[in-house]
Design goal:
Strand order of the largest sheet: 1-2-4-3-5-16-6-15
Largest sheet: 8 strands, mixed
CATH class of the largest domain: Alpha Beta
Order of helices and strands: HHEEEHEHEEEEEHEEEHEEHEHEH
Number of domains: 2
Shape: elongated
């Protein structure tokens, strides 16, 4: 194994107690959205005393901390997201959430702690750096377009502009300490689907005098699933999930309207476009066939996250050199969750990797996943994440994509 890269894992393990303490502090005080004053103060306090410069914008609490090495070469961007989810926590952790209906159920507390610790580790070894490292502390990943706000504020364009970008996301559903990624489409685009069917209300005993929207809604739901399987290339798949059907007020009244809602997930813009057109066509025409009317609203979500193959290769080599061949695997398919890191990768070549954090004694196949109210993680794996942030930064600044 490379002496240089082994140095990073040794340094990360030495700082692991501080990373765990920081992660637990953030976990206990989760914040939502694009303004996270407690979290930002916690991070800035942990970075105090380091020779970093800071930049922030008006649209969110997101900030970039910049570390300059002795070299004047490339610039690499490392990212960690900071926001939590609007949901209760049902664990028995000593440091469980103290905020009602807010929980770090997606591991952003660990992302932030790992990135902060990586900044400390890289700062202590900045003589190794052939260029500049930018640490992107991002809010609002959970549906609030925090990355977009930071981009619109110009934070990624301020000199020196990054030449490469790297991010990490934990998952309890990969073995502890193991990294996984793939080149190309890595995570899905996601869009909200809202369909309102307008009929004519009436008495449940006399449906012939009404226009019942409920069976029309049911027909639309089934037809949409058929549209997905018969009109979309199975090798460029989409997932259309109808998660809500709402209509009616009581048992003896035919309602005027029914609302269908769900999500569309896709891994290419081509299939995304075909599916959106198909949803509108199916809903409108089925409603029209019954003499009713449908109103279709498709609310755009995050774009497809597309990994640059060169950065995936760089991260894989760095992980294997530090931790052995078993430490990185190539994923066979994209994950159908979504990430606003996608917008950063549209501007800067880079990638995201998963880090396995299956809790001790727990089968990663059955561990409570991200977004579960019972999600927990193995904190010792954070040392691997800290080390890979640092190793990717050094390797990219030294050699680029070569």
């Amino acid at each position: 194994m490379s002496d240089t890269l082994t140095h990073w894992i040794d340094g990360a393990k030495a700082l692991l107690p501080d990373a765990i303490k920081l992660r637990r502090t953030i976990h206990a005080y989760p914040e939502l959205g694009n303004f996270l004053p407690v979290t930002v103060k916690t991070v800035r306090d942990a970075l105090a005393g380091l020779d970093l410069t800071y930049e922030e914008g008006p649209s969110s609490c997101g900030f970039i901390a910049t570390l300059k090495g002795p070299g004047q070469g490339r610039t690499v961007l490392l990212r960690g997201d900071m926001d939590a989810l609007p949901m209760p926590e049902d664990t028995d952790l000593d440091f469980k959430s103290t905020v009602p209906n807010a929980m770090h159920a997606c591991g952003h507390d660990s992302h932030t702690a790992m990135l902060t610790t990586a900044a400390r580790l890289l700062h202590a070894n900045r003589d190794r750096l052939a260029g500049t490292v930018k640490f992107m502390f991002q809010p609002g990943e959970e549906g609030h377009f925090g990355a977009v706000k930071m981009i619109e504020d110009g934070l990624l364009d301020r000199g020196p502009k990054p030449d490469g970008a790297f991010a990490m996301h934990i998952t309890p559903n990969i073995p502890t300490g193991v990294f996984g990624a793939k080149p190309g489409p890595f995570m899905a685009a996601t869009d909200e689907v809202h369909i309102t069917i307008w009929g004519k209300g009436g008495h449940a005993s006399s449906p012939q005098h009404a226009l019942d929207p409920i069976p029309i809604a049911c027909e639309i739901v089934l037809a949409l699933q058929n549209m997905v399987t018969r009109r979309i290339n199975p090798f460029d798949p989409v997932i259309l999930t109808i998660a809500q059907i709402n209509g009616g007020t009581t048992t003896n009244v035919i309602p005027e309207t029914v609302v269908i809602a769900g999500t569309l997930r896709s891994v290419s813009e081509e299939s995304r476009k075909i599916a959106k057109e198909g949803i509108a066509r199916v809903a409108n025409n089925i409603a029209k066939a019954h003499g009713a009317w449908a109103e279709v609203e498709l609310i755009p979500g995050y774009d497809v996250t597309v990994n640059d193959a060169r950065m995936v290769s760089l991260a894989a080599k760095a992980a294997r050199e530090m931790l052995g061949d078993h430490s990185f695997f190539t994923m066979p398919a994209p994950v159908m969750g979504a990430e606003d890191w996608s917008y950063v990768l549209q501007k800067i070549p880079g990638c995201m990797v998963f880090l396995g954090v299956a809790p001790a004694g727990c089968d990663h196949n059955t561990a409570a996943p991200c977004h579960s109210n019972k999600m927990q993680l193995e904190e010792s794996a954070m040392a691997h994440g800290v080390a890979l942030y640092a190793a990717v930064a050094e390797r990219f600044l030294d050699k680029g994509f070569d």
